[in-house]
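General statements about sequence and structure are easier to judge against a single worked case. For one protein, we set the task of working out the structure tokens from the amino acid sequence alone. This step matters because it turns folding into a mapping between discrete strings. The amino acid sequence and the backbone structure tokens for this protein are reproduced below.
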Amino acid sequence: MTSLDLRADPADLTAALVDAFSVSGEEGRLADAVQAALTEQAPHLEVVRNGDAVLARTNLGRGSRVILAGHLDTVPENANLPSRRTGSGDEELLHGLGSVDMKGGDAVFLHLAATLPEPKHDITFVFYDNEEVEAVKNGLGRIERELPEWLAGDLAVVGEPSNGTIEAGCQGTLRVEIRTSGTRAHTARAWMGENAIHALAEPLRRLAEYAPRVVDIDGLTYREGLQATKISGGVAGNVVPDAAVLTVNFRFAPDRNPAQAEAHVREVFDGYDVTLTDLSPGALPGLSAPAAAELVAAAGGRAAAKLGWTDVARFAALGMPAVNFGPGNPSLAHTQQEHVHVAEIRQVADVLRKFLG
């Protein structure tokens, strides 16, 4: 079984986690190693196992509780294992699958779990499975159903890559399909048919002319977006098509609830057959909450809006402010070139130690 030294330099611990294969659905061995390491090296924590998730917490009776959450799984390997290092000093890089998304964040949390026996906030550590696949398999959902008391707190910090900057809240996302219909005909006698693909011209025009909102919430700027992501249709090279589908993704600011976001999209495409296929709510930043404000102060007073969707929305739905804070550039996630600055791993650890310790 993989052996983890939780008291090691968080960068070295990151490398050990990267080298522990844990593609979604195959996190068991890494979860075994995390559970064993926490049990042996952090005796001050209560540790439990839930599927291939490992949870640990202090029970010190503090006035507030902070949740540190990170997923153990990665996307499939792409010739980017084992880990390797390049450069030196401030330019030292750690390369490898999951180094950005999000074993650097996991390493920071595991290091703090072992080296902060008496934090000023009680802490719950959640290392969960199946984040990189469909939402129904996400380990946080299972934990919420089976161990809901373990997800109660005053602030959640999700260790997703954020370039070492606090990214508060997140935008919501929905997808719709716009369907048009027509009449098939031979293209040599096209006037006898009605082209369903051509009927998408008006919805596409509306998209091209759409002006997205820019919204300020708690001093953070969220930029909405409405984009066509797929068009399907067609029968054969000589047939006027009788059906077509346009897929549209709406990224909406967290001041809209899901019903408002859906209503807005339906208004944009009024008169068309619109089918909702996916919807996830956003999360308000909640930076005015005491624990969140304290974390921002520990990070030098800097915070930014999270423009993508992450599991902070799950915690926000439970009634607590949530932020993304982890080492690594999110644009490198899921790429063969995935790598993280070693200095950034240590910086995130230092900020959280200042906040918690």
